[in-house]
Amino acid sequence: MPKQQSRRAFLTSASAAALAGMGVGGAVGGRLSAGKGTPETTTIRLKKSLAICFAPYYIVEDFLREEGFKDIKYLDSFDDAVTKRMLKEGELHFDQTFAGQVVHEIDSGEDITALGGLHVGCYELFAREPIRTISDLKGKRVGINEMHLGEHLYISIMAAYVGLDPKKDIKWVTSKTGPPLELFAAGETDAFLGFPPEPQMLRARGHKRVILNTVQDHPWSQYFCCMMYGNRSWVRNHPVATKKFLRAMYRAAAVCSSKPENAARQLVDGKFAERYDYALETIKAIPYDRWHEYDSDDTMRFYALRLHDAGMLKNNPKKILEEGTQFSFLKDLRQEMRG
Amino acid sequence: VPIRVQSKMLAAFLLIVGLLILLGALGLQSLREMNERSEELNELQRKITAYRHVQHGTTRQLYGVTSALHSQDDRALDGALRQLSQFGYDLDRLQHVATDEREVLSKVRMDYERFIEAVSNAINYARAGRLKEARALQLNEARPLADRLERLTNKLVNLAEADMLAGIKKSRQAYSNSRIVVVGFSVGSILLALGLGYVFSWSIIRPLKKIETRLRGVAAGEFTEHVTVASRDELGELAANLNRTCDELARLYRELEEASRHKSQFVANMSHELRTPLAAMLGYTELLLDGLFGELPEKAIAGLERVQANGKHLLGLINAVLDISKIEAGQFSLNLGEYALSSLIETVRVATESLASEKGLGLHTEVAPQLPSGFGDEQRLMQVLLNLVGNAIKFTDKGTVAVTASLENDEFAIHVRDTGPGIAVAQQGRIFEEFQQVDSTDTKTKGGTGLGLAISKQIIEMHGGRIWVESEFGAGATFHIRLPVRVPAQGATT
């Protein structure tokens, strides 16, 4: 009977293998171990949600310990307003969400700093007949959770990209009427932008008509989908800790890519996902190992431009990039992990 | 140093012209900035077009190679290789237009070379019949490189778009600033022009109005006041000259008044001195005619009666001249007291009845009953009525002379109406002036001093009343008097 590996040993070896596989480094122990220096704080607070595509976030704990963090906690926050408040008050240190939403929040004056993209596309746009393209959404009912959050922003961007006016041309149906997924399944909306595990759930119920997949379809597939960000003052005051957090996250992403089954199991065990099959499907579909190929800076610029096109941005994209991003950690990590 | 009005106006116009020049300069500056922004945006548009060319080239390449590998046709493979050269041309174009994006361009160039190598190798494998290796190369190397090239060119496009947005924002800001400046300057210029216009017009009109008011005073005989104009320009000089003119006129007026007073005094004295011997002459004539010195022959009586008549006429003239001179000298005053208008009119009737009878005229009086008693100078009022009735009898050859009196609006309304020749409208205004008479044969033959109506007018006005005439030539005349029942004591002086 083979000797059972400890979880930490597994993760270390898995991330080493993954990084070697994606060609970003001679994956030997020394290079994958914690970065130099000790973090300014050993306490870190992350957010718990049920979005499976945040998988690296949920398996990052051991890597964070390797980086020197000791007090690691996941806070339950399924409400964006609560998350904003927790971030503002320093109760929550890092979070991740759709890059367009990060841009929008920076533009709205939230004290956050974008740190780096985690992975490309995870959204799938389900639509009923006769909708075949984004342009066909004109005059149709689209289900979203809330205005000015992820799905609303993303669909608005997509609509404006093909010349629609998202404010006038689309009938938005928010979750006040009911859960967007249920509304779509019941035929009360015409389109729905799903976020794992929602696409898997819809497919399980027989809804398989996807008109856009942001993992595969251009131009969305050419940019990061989810962007990590942190409390601005916390990031400014804890540069070493921030960099170590990012390093841990990318190491966790490498594990998701190299050992998706283990990562999926860990999500279910940690109560971050309810179903193993959905978690595995998602983790396998998302190319977590290609974060180094994509440009976080250009992702933020792209979404800022698109939000501007949609009339949903007050500030200049350049200003948002200058004031709301800190990609120097990412640049360093890219070189270090490559080297 | 006095500043002339001309200089002030010139300075104001120069200021406005200066502002307009400044406004023009700012407008030109704004146009220049907008032109620069427009050129920048054009440049960015050229860049974006070049980036898109590269993107399309990459996609076309990938598609061409995939098709060529699939068909294994030599011509298709040659075409794919030729397109590689074309792609290089697009890349050169990119380097030409995007000189400021060296870092990204060097990555594009590097990936492009790797992409060319991968595609060339794939084609070579295909030519050698090693299709499996060719497809593997195309799938594992060429496609990811094409993806990477797309992302890099996307980045270039996004950078250019962001620059374009910033440029548009700058352009809008520049336009907004220009608009604020131009509108501000325009409004400022208008306000300044209006302000200067107001100040200048008032600096001219106010002194002019003062001068005009002063001239009106001068026209009314008021020479004592001075006009004050603070400015030392032409208007200031005009005001100073006007003040000097007023001073001179005042001096001349005082001298004239003095001379007039001396003349009136002289006339009054002379009239008084003439009246004394004349009274004696008339007295003795009366005595002679009364036979106090014995019976006189008929011829002597006729001569004495002529002397008496002419003497009385002369005495009337002297009295009238004396009254006028007193009026002019300011020495004419009323002797106020209670009087009954009905009695006054009756006295006049009695005094003039014989004259009317002699001419065969009817003399009628009609006084409204229960008239209140008046307060005024009874003797002077009687003088007025005697004058009016006497004139009426004198100038009326047939018909009647009527005197009526009533109370209207707390005033006595007295009318003296005759059936004489009437007075032409043109002469009605003049007959109340001194030494003025109706210009007719009658006045020449019937005599008169031309002072009676002037004195009557003065007396009535001293009582606070009015006198005027209504007449049609050839249809008689009516003299109207409106007389306050009670004369205010303070008004009874000249």
Describe the fold and architecture:
The complex is a heterodimer of chains A (339) and B (494). By secondary structure, chain A is α/β, with parallel strands linked by helices. Chain A has helices spanning 7-21, 29-32, 55-58, 61-66, 80-88, 99-107, 150-161, 166-169, 180-185, 198-204, 232-237, 239-258, 260-269, 276-285, 296-309, 317-324, 328-338, and strands at residues 43-48, 71-76, 94-98, 112-120, 124-127, 141-143, 171-173, 191-194, 210-213, 224-231. In chain A, helix 7 packs across helix 15 and helix 12 (239-258) crosses helix 13 (260-269). Chain B has 494 residues and is an alpha+beta fold. In chain B, the strands form 2 sheets. Chain B has a 5-stranded mixed β-sheet with strand order 2-4-5-7-6. A two-stranded antiparallel ribbon of chain B has the order 1-3. In chain B, strand 4 (400-408) and strand 5 form a beta hairpin.
Order of helices and strands of chain A: HHEHHEHEHEEEHHEHEHEEHHHHHHH
User: What is the number of helical segments of chain A per DSSP (H or I, 4+ residues)?
Assistant: 17
Name the structural class of chain A: alpha/beta
- Radius of gyration of chain A, taken over Cα atoms and rounded to an integer in Å: 20 Å
What count of helical segments of chain B does DSSP give?
A: 11
Bin the helical content of chain A. 40-55%
The main sheet of chain B comes to:
5 strands, mixed
Please trace the helix and strand order of chain B, writing H or E for each element.
HHHHHHEHEEHEEHHHEE
Helix content of chain B: over 70%
Largest interface: A-B, 17 and 14 residues
What is the alpha-carbon Rg of chain B in Å? 59 Å
Give the structure's gist in a few sentences.
The complex is a heterodimer of chains A (339) and B (494). In chain A, 46% of the residues lie in helices and 15% in strands. In chain A, helix 7 crosses helix 15 (296-309), helix 12 (239-258) crosses helix 13 (260-269) and helix 15 (296-309) crosses helix 16.
Any key phrases for this structure?
heterodimer, A: 339 residues, alpha/beta, five-stranded mixed β-sheet, three-stranded antiparallel β-sheet, 17 helices, disordered N terminus, B: 494 residues, alpha+beta, two-stranded antiparallel ribbon, 7 strands, 71% helix
